[in-house]
Automatic annotation (TrEMBL):
Localization per Swiss-Prot or TrEMBL: Cell membrane; Endomembrane system; Membrane
Main enzyme class: translocase
Domain NADH:quinone oxidoreductase/Mrp antiporter transmembrane: 151-454
Keyword field: Cell membrane, Membrane, NAD, Quinone, Translocase, Transmembrane, Transmembrane helix, Transport
Protein name: NADH-quinone oxidoreductase subunit N
Naturally occurring in which organism (per UniProt): Streptomyces camponoticapitis
Pfam families recorded: Proton_antipo_M
Similarity comment: family membership: Belongs to the complex I subunit 2 family.
Subunit structure: NDH-1 is composed of 14 different subunits. Subunits NuoA, H, J, K, L, M, N constitute the membrane sector of the complex.
Entries under InterPro entries matching the protein: NADH-Q_OxRdtase_suN/2, ND/Mrp_TM
């Protein structure tokens, strides 16, 4: 063999990358189970379709367990051969915390979905939900959501974002023959496509200014951008944030949220409120803290304004609906999720002024929010079995009919409001408030304080309704309930056997919320370890 041939062989060998399969195992296993479900659906008879749900739940649980051997947070793969420290996938502490949140949220969504797919129809409605398609789409979206926090280049970030989002469009519109579901899916799709197009334009600007897509190399490139490219780089930074702001439901990119949550199957609304939001915020944190620190003067004020606008729009919109008798509980949770997104943005804005230590507050708040919001949706799913419209009045009498469920729901709402005994909610809000003060954003802290007070009204109103006695007919006797699925009079609850998966979701989230309220400092300590 000649010297040239030997050198060519060595060069070819250097281009072959070794893949750390354990590092990529959580999203890879989730994707593999999704493909398995899709193929199995072709051969499993209709009466055996519940097995697909069991397989999906088991797959998500296994993916969660695969996070345990990665807890050291020091693994990377898909690195450049010439620069081994520049990688496209990194399983650090931040990645593992967000993957825990995402996969845990998907697992609870799967538990809620098992009963929605019972008999091939959504509970309380006549709209079919095809089991095989549902589980494939849910697992596919979860695999993309689990991939995104590990991405360390813009190409992987965009691909992961779209993998998480595209199946969600179909999930929202999966209630065949339902006009609201189809309308919600169309609004979600059109607004998401627009946001993605704007984000891709921003990515192209950043690449043109720096010559790289890897986040660490972008950061180095933006530190020394030629003067003639400075405007292009600043525009790219701003436009890149749009796609992640859309996923995080930040105003003014929030307009898809209320109709989408109401039109989607209830478990998918829960999934979007937690997992989709986690995807948006993890992407936002990655690009701002790792890729764009030198342009904090561009994204810092922008994120601060977004935070103030988002929390105000969400709370005021929820406040306007609260007094009405026909108020939709799911629509309230939708506006509540918009307001909560505003609180989550506060530490990200603070990081532009006081360093990345503030990011731990966002992670801590996201963990609290995920637990209690999924619990609230689990209770809503239980009530929807007898009252598909899910109005505020439908929760009246819940305490007398199901005392433990009512206590859990009251606890979830108080956590979201930041009131005792929801100590973890109070602790998270104080932590976020402190991050704004420490960063010198006193005006943002004032806006947050005002919004927290506004939110107390509708959270406490809902809590009060739960513990009121059931409404009575004009003769003073309790109203008689018609058999499900006939729509019940407002304030009427039907005593039906609660599905075990729904009760398990309520119990798990309630237990986690109580445990975290007993030791809230563990949340912040755990979140602090997720810093880069």
């Amino acid at each position: 063999m000649t010297v040239a041939a030997a050198q060519g062989a060595d060069s070819a060998a250097n281009l072959v990358q070794s893949v750390d399969w354990l590092a990529i195992a959580p999203p890879a296993l989730t994707a593999a189970v999704a493909l398995t479900v899709l193929i199995a659906d072709l051969f499993v008879p209709e009466r055996r379709k519940p097995l697909l749900g069991a397989l999906s739940v088991a797959g998500l649980a296994a993916a969660l367990l695969l996070l345990v051997p990665l807890r050291s947070g020091d693994r990377s793969t898909f690195c450049l051969t010439a620069e081994p420290e520049v990688c496209s996938y990194t399983a650090d502490h931040f990645t593992l915390v967000i993957q825990l949140l995402v996969l845990g949220g998907a697992l609870l969504t799967a538990l809620l979905s098992v009963t929605e797919l019972d008999g091939g129809k959504a509970a309380g409605t006549g709209h079919k939900l095809p089991a095989g398609e549902f589980w494939f789409l849910l697992l596919s979206s979860a695999s993309g959501a689990a991939l995104l926090p590990a991405a360390r280049d813009l190409a992987t970030l965009v691909v992961a974002l779209e993998v998480a989002t595209l199946p969600a469009f179909a999930l929202v519109g999966l209630k065949r023959g339902d006009r609201l579901s189809s309308e919600a899916a169309l609004k979600f799709f059109l607004s998401s496509v627009t946001a993605t197009a704007v984000m891709l334009l921003g990515v192209s600007f950043v690449y043109a200014a720096t010559g790289s897509l890897h986040l660490t190399e972008i950061a180095a490139g933006l530190d020394d951008v030629p003067g003639k490219l400075e405007t292009l780089a600043s525009a790219g930074v701003a436009l890149t944030l749009v796609g992640f702001a859309f996923k995080a439901a930040a105003a003014p990119f929030h307009f898809w949220v209320p109709d989408t949550y109401v039109g989607a199957p209830l478990p998918i609304a829960a999934y979007l409120s937690v997992v989709s939001k986690a995807v948006g915020f993890s992407g936002l944190i990655l690009v701002t803290v790792i890729a764009f620190p030198s342009h904090s003067d561009v994204w810092g004020p922008a994120v601060a304004v977004l935070a103030a606008l988002t929390m105000t729009v969400g709370n005021v919109a929820a406040l306007r609906q609260a007094p009405t008798r026909a108020w939709s509980a799911v629509r309230l949770l939708a506006w509540s999720s918009v307001a909560q997104a505003g609180y989550l943005l506060v530490p990200v804005a603070a990081a532009a002024y006081a360093g990345t230590d503030q990011i731990g507050s966002t992670v801590a708040y996201a963990l609290m929010y995920a637990v209690v919001n999924l619990g609230a949706f689990a209770v809503a799913a239980l009530v929807a079995r007898t009252n598909p419209l899910n109005r505020l009045a439908d929760y009246r009498g819940l305490a007398s009919e199901r005392p433990l469920v009512a206590l859990a729901m009251g606890f979830f709402l108080l956590c979201l409001a930041g009131l005792p005994p929801g100590i973890v909610g109070l602790f998270a809000k104080v932590t976020v408030f402190s991050s704004a003060v420490d960063a010198g954003l006193g005006w943002l802290a004032v806006v947050m304080a005002v919004n927290v007070v506004i939110a107390l009204f509708y959270y406490l109103q809902w809590t009060a309704v739960i513990f009121r006695a059931p409404e009575t007919a004009e003769d003073g006797r309790p109203e008689t309930a018609a058999p499900a699925p006939v729509l019940q009079p407002a304030g009427t609850l039907v005593a039906l056997r609660a599905p075990a998966p729904v009760l398990a979701a309520i119990g798990l989230t309630a237990a986690a919320g109580v445990a975290l309220s007993g030791a809230p400092q563990l949340v912040l300590r755990f979140a602090a370890e997720s810093l880069f």
